[in-house]
Amino acid sequence: MSSARSFAFGPFTLIPERQLLLRGDAPVRIGGRALDILTVLVEQPGELASKRELMARVWPTTIVDEGSLKVNVASLRRTLGDGGPDDARYIATVIGRGYRFIASVTTNDSLELEISPMAASTRRHNLPTGTTRIVGRADVIENIERDFETSRLVTITGPGGIGKTTVALAVAERALGSFKDGVWLVDLAPLKDPEAVVNAIAMALGVGVHSESMLAPLCEFLRGREMVLVLDNCEHVLEAAASSASHILAESAGVKILVTSREPLRVYEERVRRLPGLGAPLPCRELSSEEALGYPAIQLFVDRAADRFESFRLSDADAPMVAEICRRLDGLALAIEFAATRVEAFGVSGLMKQIDDSLRHLVGRRAGPERQRTLTATLDWSYGLLSDDEAALLRAVSVFMGTFDVDGASAVSNSAPVVTARTLTRLAAKSLLVTDADAVPIAYRLLETTRTYCLERLRLEGQGPAVRRRHAKHVCTVLERAAGDWAQQPALKWGNAYARVLDDLRAALAFAGADASEKKLLVQLTVSGILLWNHFSLTHESLVFVTLAARELEAAGLAGTRSDMRLQISLAGTTMFARGPMPEALAAVQRTLDIATQLGDAEHRLLGLRMLASYEVFAGSPDAALRTLDTFTAAATVADPSALPYAAAHTGMAEMFVGRLWRSRQRLEDLFQRDQQDRDETRFARFQYDRKVDIGNILANAQWLTGSPDAAMRTAEAVVERALKTRHQLSLSNGLAVAACPVAFLCGRYEECGRYVAMLEEQITRHGIVVWRPIAMFYRSALAWLAGDVPGVGAEGIGHAIAEFRAIRHWARMPFYLCMLAAALARSGRIVEARETVRCAIDQAHAHNEQWCLPEVLRIQSSILFADGEVREAEAILVESMALARQMGALSWRLRSATDLAGLWLRESRTEDARKMLRPVFDEFTEGFSTRDLVAAADILVSLPSPGDGTAESR
């Protein structure tokens, strides 16, 4: 129950403060501008709301013309089911002046309203917003809904422009409440390459496209989910769409697929619904306007004509001609809509002549089914009615992959923004552009059929290369502006603002990459896109384009320039994440540093030094990383002190590896606490990933090693929470791989570890971050080993993970991984292999100076020797392990070794020695008493007699 101002009329209730329109107790989908207009009208029922007043209220900070108001009023009328200007139930037009709300309105300033679950819930989908009145399709929509009860794949077929997408969206909207994982639209129309079908599905679902083959990861992501996929416009990628659908259906029992295509997919158990044209009366039949309006095609024509020409009404005299127009257009919804928008200019009789002339002129000109020729003829006719400047602009904007604004249209058409804005308004009024009046600035887009047609006209005019070149340069300009905004805007706001540029960037890169004379443009585009790819964690995509551009530097005359430098640092980072610390990553880092030094570029020198330290840590050279980070600190102190915290995490990691545990912890603890302010930082991924996550990753490990397991878990949890908040996938994968999985495992919180491993596996599947894949494999296998369900399974899995670590040259933490493998081998009875493996772990620790885990490696070696009957040797190594752990401050390792030694002495009845040795170590802990290691130690202590009285002691 909630209190709010409300306005009730007819079956509707409007609650402005909640931006909510209800029909009964169900929410109505309505555009934001249309809802604002409705609010103004119902606030003053019966009174005139002038056009000026409405535009001032609805667009207070934006200059728009009356066309935008007209479009939104038409949308509002469709939403309300209004009858039109002459028989309206709700909104009456005062010609030349404005609008008046004519229905009775009940106002309640404090309405107690119970919102139904349907209204309160937020469904997961990406369906377009707004409401369009669907004409003549109720039966087919219901039939498709019934089809879905018995079939998981339904394909709507029919010629272009018949209304397949409209019907599919209507079915999808009605399915929203029935599938817990939502309904997702995948528009395949923009695709040129059939191999991109899987990637398009993945992107629509938010499964980042970062690996060359996404089908298996996509199916893995969908397994266990319940959703509807709407694959729209499949005809030009039919085989790829069919293959993708087959695999998804086979792998994901809860997924259903709705397809639109000009022909069936011809997939097993596919249910095909062929969509007919909208019904129109038979020829040579006289009929009244009332009779004509009984046919869906004529209903659509009249509805759309009234949208653009508010005083239009179907007369008895016009009814036969409208019927003939609809018949000549074969009931094609798109063609009928185009025709209806021209009634204002030509009248019905003039329109009939225009269509007749156009169709007669084009008969037989193109191959293909008659209906396709008819739609093309309608497009030709509509295009032919444009003035030269309108046609030129429409051709030019067809190169945009999605929405565009006035500046973009002006750039690609090489015309002044003021002139462009006026022309766009005229094109939108003729329904050749779709307008998003809610966007700031106002955005436009072409219907895909229109876009395809205009692209062909652009090619025939020989203007394609010039327009595409201007488009590519415009994309560069937008991304340069984005780079400036990145330093000023909160990260999430920045991402929302520039996500739409990705498709245009890809199209521009395709153009530049295909033209040997555009190598310089190719490099410039790639450099401009680096920030965008990094923000959205598009690692694989970035690596592909950056690698291609780097090969063209010499030919483009850009070797040794800032562009070269920016490409090299991106190449280093994406290679590290997508392939591991390979030699080419090191070469790219060195190239970055060389150019940065030559150009005096302090920022890129810091980026290069930080990347070099990352490489050295991954490659198992913590001492070299410390030297590099000393250089970074010295350089940042002089050039940019704000960069100093970004070195802290890597310095702390390297210090931890070489055994300076307390120094690492103290370095990071205060900085981590200061960075926990709840704010959306600008430039949060300045050094590839979030600084707060970066610092917390290492701090969590240092806290556990130094004896604060509860604090370590809190830090790891905070890291994951922060990474989820930023929505930066590289940061999240880092937090899971470096902090959450290992710390939960070391604390003995195996259920939580398994949950974090599953999250990491999903990140790897979605984003192809190869460097973390063996970590997920390792912890998954280690958990299986500890569970002990199937003997030997854990050891085999850990061995595979280690092999993959070696294959990608990921040497960091290798001694720890090897000692875990040795322990698993020993439990499986493979003592000889276990002894060899733990010896290898010790050698690796010394070779790479990874002192941090050496006490644990020695403890595992002791357990193997004990299992092999070498008790005295096992005891000596445990003492050595405890001494080393004490030296470096590794209290958690020391407790483990002390617990093992106490157990060994208890076997020999050395009860007092065990108590005196274990109790002081246990007493050094101030927290973590519910963790497995401390519980195990406490169990031993409680079983020991207290000195002097022989009674059991407890803590």
Write the topology of this structure.
Blueprint: E1 2-9, E2 12-15, E3 20-23, E4 26-27, H1 32-43, E5 48-50, H2 51-58, H3 66-80, E6 91-94, E7 98-101, E8 106-113, H4 117-120, H5 138-150, E9 153-157, H6 164-174, E10 183-187, H7 197-205, H8 215-222, E11 227-232, H9 238-251, E12 255-261, E13 271-274, H10 289-292, H11 296-308, H12 319-328, H13 333-340, H14 343-362, H15 370-384, H16 388-397, H17 406-413, H18 417-429, E14 434-436, E15 443-445, H19 448-460, H20 464-486, H21 491-498, H22 501-514, H23 519-535, H24 539-551, H25 562-579, H26 583-599, H27 602-618, H28 622-639, H29 645-657, H30 661-674, H31 691-705, H32 709-726, H33 729-746, H34 750-767, H35 773-787, H36 793-807, H37 814-827, H38 831-847, H39 854-867, H40 871-888, H41 891-907, H42 911-923, H43 932-943
Parallel strand pairs: 9-12, 9-13, 10-11, 11-12
Antiparallel strand pairs: 1-2, 1-8, 2-3, 3-4, 5-7, 6-7, 14-15
Features:
955 residues; 6 domains; five-stranded antiparallel β-sheet; 7% strand; alpha/beta; 61% helix; Rossmann fold; elongated; Arc Repressor Mutant, subunit A; 15 strands
Description:
This protein folds into six domains: 119 residues, Orthogonal Bundle (Arc Repressor Mutant, subunit A); 137 residues, Rossmann fold (3-Layer(aba) Sandwich); 96 residues; 63 residues, no CATH class; 121 residues, no CATH class; 143 residues, Tetratricopeptide repeat domain (Serine Threonine Protein Phosphatase 5, Tetratricopeptide repeat, Alpha Horseshoe), CATH 1.25.40.10. The strands form four sheets. The chain has a five-stranded antiparallel β-sheet with strand order 4-3-2-1-8, with helices on one face. The chain has a five-stranded parallel β-sheet with strand order 10-11-12-9-13, with helices on both faces. The longest helix is centred in the middle third of the chain and has 23 residues. β11, α9 and β12 form a beta-alpha-beta unit. The protein contains 43 helices and 15 strands. It has 955 residues and is of the alpha/beta class.
